[in-house]
Amino acid sequence: MKMLKHKRARVLLAGTAGLALVLGACGGADDLGGGGGGGSDTETDATGSGADCSAFEEYGTFDGETVTVFSSIREVEADQLQDTFEAFTECTGITVEHNGSGEFEQQVVVQAEGGNAPDIAIFPQPGLLQRMVADGHLVPAPDTVEANADEGWSEDWKAYGTVDGEFYAAPLMSSVKSFVWYSPSAFEENGYEVPETWDELMALTEQISADHGSETVKPWCQGIESGGATGWPATDWIEDLVLRSAGAEAYDQWVTGELAFNSPEIVEAVDMAGAILKNDDYTNGGIGDSRSIATTSFNDGGLPILEGNCFMHRQASFYEAQWPEGTDVSPDGDVFAFYLPGVTAEEAPLLVAGEFVGAFNDEEATQAVQAFMSSGEWANTRVEIGGVVSANRAVDPEAASSDVLRLAIELLQDENAVARFDGSDLMPSEVGAGSFWTGMVEWINGADTQGVLDTVEQSWP
């Protein structure tokens, strides 16, 4: 198979899909320029659907090949991910089988060590990616994928998929985590204004509690349950607050282990989060007391806003996909989001995250799927389907499915933004996807800040 230079043609979508798309190949057996379409500008796929396959010529054609993809992506987002491969499958003949698991971080290691690895995995933590490289499970990305990464992403984003100078994984989706979801209509009805500083946010929290506080109605709602990854939403709170209270330089030192996990700077940030998350007067609206956060799925954590039992929910831009179908996500709609304030109105640090596509083999079909997933076509297709954003330069912000996501894309593409990648995702996986997660669950369940952070610090490899 010959890989051609990546184009930016629009990918055709063809409705919804199941976990596997089993569609016929487009064009001839060797390439799309010969046979089938007769080399015309508009190719006709083997199923006779008349799809335009010219955008997929670079990936080659395959007869009944299947490529497996494993990730932590589930539910609505899993269906949306699968939808991105419909035209690709029609035109290349490659069936993409995606499997999403709440136990991804544990299972991908088990599968790799057991000789049963998928063809491709989508890693939400660069730390876990680095561990898989160090253990010899992943293969370097092909030149086509690296060229796409150079074209579409900043050097910082590419660096997260690079280990010891070798490029292994192109970025996929991105997200802005520094958002608070709320109901614009509820704010207007009660005369509440979007806060611009942390003190204003805490004053608003206290006011909502005074106005509406009861066993069922609280200022905040939250959930941190996520299968084997339970605890990660709480680590996002801590990372955002380290970035705000201690600053970007201290944040960088903390992520690399230079600043101890149990240092005063980190204790202060955790206690700032605890002033909300561990206060029964402030959480967990529509669900239970503050400890119910630990057993509430992160997917469901913000839904009480729609029922009037909660006013605010801190979660990333990707949470848009969790709102029920028909929810109006707009400045005057059912829900919207505001930027999680800094200490002052002038300070606006941004916590971001993303995913990276690594391969366990260098089969040609695997490389073709890798190349497609690293392209601007794939990024625009996924953004158009809705619910997510990307930092890929090829993405048109106007393609975003809501004003929140459009804002997120603009923030991600702003070269002057002071942004930092999710800290737990950068830390060694034993900490970032291990003791930090479990420590936050213990903390929500009543453990004291200093004791939890001492334990996490001791786990640093």
UniProtKB/TrEMBL annotation:
Domain of life: Bacteria
UniProt-listed SUPFAM superfamilies: Periplasmic binding protein-like II
UniProt keyword terms in alphabetical order: Signal, Transport
Extent of the signal sequence: 1-25
Alphabetical list of InterPro entries matching this protein: Bact_solute-bd_prot1, SBP
PANTHER family the UniProt entry points to: ARABINOSE-BINDING PROTEIN-RELATED (PTHR43649), OSMOPROTECTIVE COMPOUNDS-BINDING PROTEIN GGTB (PTHR43649:SF29)
Similarity comment text for this entry: Belongs to the bacterial solute-binding protein 1 family.
Protein name as catalogued: Carbohydrate ABC transporter substrate-binding protein
